[in-house]
Amino acid sequence: MNKPAVGSVGWMDLTVKDAVAVRDFYKDVAGWSATGLDMGGYEDFVMMPPGGGETPVGGICHARGPNEDQPTGWILYIIVANLEHSLERVTAMGGRVRGKIRGAGPSGRFCLIEDPSGTVSALFEQAGD
């Protein structure tokens, strides 16, 4: 599987209070299907495109557990080459780092940021080969 290019959007998550209801909304409206992702006592969802595509379109997550501090709404995960360097640039350019660097399993690691307008996204550094 090819890794997303640096600078591209590699993933997106929607964090909400009731992920089950919103999962069903997107299943009906967009035709997405859902695969449960065990979060240790509850499930978040990986959403797949209609027609059995193999590449997920994003995730729908409950605003609890590791996502408790995330704002409601879609969060884009922007691929960066060096997470620490990019986080330094966030603050130098008038943004804010929100929280700590978190692992994303074998895929890599990420950190939420806020740009100078107040919009939240995440920077994601992919794991090496």
Produce the secondary structure layout.
Layout: E1 9-16, H1 19-30, E2 33-38, E3 43-48, E4 58-62, E5 73-80, H2 83-92, E6 96-103, E7 108-114, E8 120-126
Parallel strand pairs: 1-4, 5-8
Antiparallel strand pairs: 1-5, 2-3, 3-4, 6-7, 7-8
Which features would summarize this protein structure in a list?
single chain; 129 residues; alpha+beta; eight-stranded mixed β-sheet; 8 strands; 17% helix; 43% strand
What does this structure look like?
By secondary structure, this protein is of the alpha+beta class. The protein has 2 helices and 8 strands. The chain has helices at residues 19-30, 83-92; strands spanning 9-16, 33-38, 43-48, 58-62, 73-80, 96-103, 108-114, 120-126. Strands 2-3-4-1-5-8-7-6 form an 8-stranded mixed sheet, covered by helices on one side. The longest helix has 12 residues, at 19-30. The relative contact order is 0.20.
Low-confidence spans: pLDDT under 50, at least 5 residues? none
* Count of β-strands: 8
Count of helices?
2
Instruction: Characterize the biggest β-sheet.
Output: 8 strands, mixed
Coarse morphology: globular
Class derived from helix and strand content: alpha+beta
What is the mean predicted local confidence, pLDDT? 93
Q: Which series of helices and strands comes N to C?
A: EHEEEEHEEE
Q: Which percent bin holds the helix content?
A: 10-25%
Strand content: 35-45%
Give the strand order of the largest sheet, numbering strands 1, 2, ... along the chain: 2-3-4-1-5-8-7-6
